[in-house]
Amino acid sequence: MTRLTLIQLNDSHGYLEPHPELVWEADGPILHQMGGFARIASVLATARTENPGGVLAFDNGDTFHGTPALAKSQGECAVPVLNALGLTAMTGHWDFAYGPRQVARLSEMLNYPMLAANCHPLTADAPRFAPTFITESAGCRIGVIGLAATILDKTMPANFSEGLRFTDGIEETRDHASRLRAEGCDLIVVLSHLGLPQDCALATAVNGLDVILSGHTHNRLDRPWAVNGALLIQSGCHGSFLGRLDLDLEGGKVIAHRHRLIPIDDAIRPDATVADLVTRAVAPTAALRDDIVGHSADLLHRMTCLDAPMDDVLLAAIAEAAGTRIAFSNGWRYGVPIPPGPVSAYDLWCIVPTDPPVETVCLSGAEILEMMEQNLEATFSADPFHQRGGYVKRFRGLAFTVKLENPPLHRIGMAFGPDGAPLDAQGVYRCAFITTQGVPHRFGEDRRAIGISATKALRSWFACHDRADPTHLGRLCVV
Q1: pLDDT tens-digit profile of 443-459?
Q2: Which of the residues 257, 384, 396, 477 has the least number of beta carbons within 10 Å of its own beta carbon?
C-alpha cells in the first residue's frame, strides 16, 4: 500500500500576506489573523517531509487578482512566490481579468501548467491552454483535467474571454478521462473552477472520476463529499485554509482516504525564503497601508449571500458620488474583512481591485424587477449550471420580499423604491452602478460616466462617514 497526498489551494485572490479572516462561531462572526503564502510554503514542506515523493499540490485559480500589488502588476509580482511553492498545476477565473493574452504570458512564467480543458479558441491567434497533465507520484500515474470558470464568457466583462469560448466541461471531462485511462492513468483528478454545485453535477454526469478539487464558491468543507465515486473537496478562500486529502492506494486504486481542512494561522512558522519573496512582491504598493482615508465603526465583510456591510459602504459611496438614491454593484465574494477602526487606501483597492468608473443609468421599475429576478435565478437556480452569479446582486435604496423556493422569474413578491412607496413598473429611476456586472448592458438608457472611479468615491465617502446610513440600505426580506 502507498499513500498519495493531494493539497489544495483555491481562491486566494492575491492575498499573499497574512490578513484578517472571518470565522463563524455559534454567537456570530469573529476575526482571526490567517493566511500568508510563507505559512502555506511551510505546510507544503511539512507534507513533503511526511510523505516524500508522494505529494501533489494544486491551485484552483482566482490567484493573480484581488489585491493592489497583483492588480497593478497584472499578476506578475506573484510569479516568484508561486514558483517557490512547487505546485503541480492550476486553472483560473479572475486570473483572466487582464485578458487571455496576459493569462498566457503568466502561464509561460510559471514552472507548472495552467489547465483549461473547457476553453476553446475562436480565432487562430487566440491563446491556447493545455487541457490535461499527467504526472507520477506514490507509484501511481495521475491524470489531471483542468476546468476554468464556465462563466468567463457569460457574465464577466468581455475582455476576460476575448477570442475564447468556455463550456461547462462535462463532455471534455468525459472524453479526457477516457483517454487518460487508456493512456495508463490510475487516478483521474479534476482541477475545477466551476463551483461546488457545478462540480457535483459534473461528478454525477461523468463516471470514473476519482477526485474533484473544487474552486470558485469559497466553501470550507471539513469533510469530502462523495458523488458517484468521486471525492470532492473545497477549501475556503484568501489562502486562509488549505485542503489536504490523503489517499491510500493499492494496485492503483483508492482503498481509504483521510481529509483535513488546515487553518493557515499563527501556529505555523513562516518559510523565510518565501516570506522574503512575498515582501518583494508587495513592496511597490506597501505604502498604501499607511495612507489612512478614514475610519469604520463597523466590521466590513462580504461573507453573507443576501447583503453584506462591505458592499453597503461601497454602494453608499458610489450613490453619494453620483447623487442618486439607488445604486447597484456585483455580488462579489472576494475581499477579506476590514476590522472596525482605521481604513487605508490598501483596503479600498481590496474592496474593488478593478477600480471601475462610477456610472449612472436610467432604469424603469420593470427593468429593475427583471434584472433582480434574473440575478436571483443566477444565484439560486435549481440547475447548477444556471448558477452564474456570485452572491445576490448588491443594491441600495430598494427593498424586496422574496420567496427563494419559487420558480425562476417569480421569486419577488413586493418591491419598494427609495421613498418606501411600491416600485413603479413604468417609472424611471436614475441609478448609480459600477461594472457591467452591476447593471448589464441590456438594461437601461442614458448611461453616463461621472468622471470618478470607485476607489476615489470610497475615499471621499470615508472622509465624511464611518458607517452606511441604515435608512437607505437595500435589503431582501426572505418570506
Answers
A1: 999 999 999 999 999 99
A2: 477
Domain co-membership, 174 together with 274:
yes
- Spatial contact of 116 and 75, defined as CB atoms under 8 Å apart: no
pLDDT digits (tens, 9 = 90+) for 342-377: 999 999 999 999 999 999 999 999 999 999 999 999
Q: Name the residue type at position 273.
A: T
118 within 8 A of 168, measured Cβ to Cβ? yes
The sign of the torsion formed by the CA atoms of 312, 313, 316, 321 equals negative
pTM summary value:
0.96
Please state, in angstroms and rounded to a whole number, the distance separating the CA atoms of residues 219 and 195.
9
Residue 35: pLDDT band (50, 70, 90) is very high
Q: How many domains does the chain have?
A: 2
Q: 46 is written with which cell numbers?
A: 511539512
Instruction: With a cut of 90, say whether residue 1 has pLDDT above it.
Output: no
Whichever domain contains 97, its CATH number is: 3.60.21.10
Q: Are strands 341-344 and 292-296 parallel, antiparallel or unpaired?
A: antiparallel
Cell of 145: 483535467
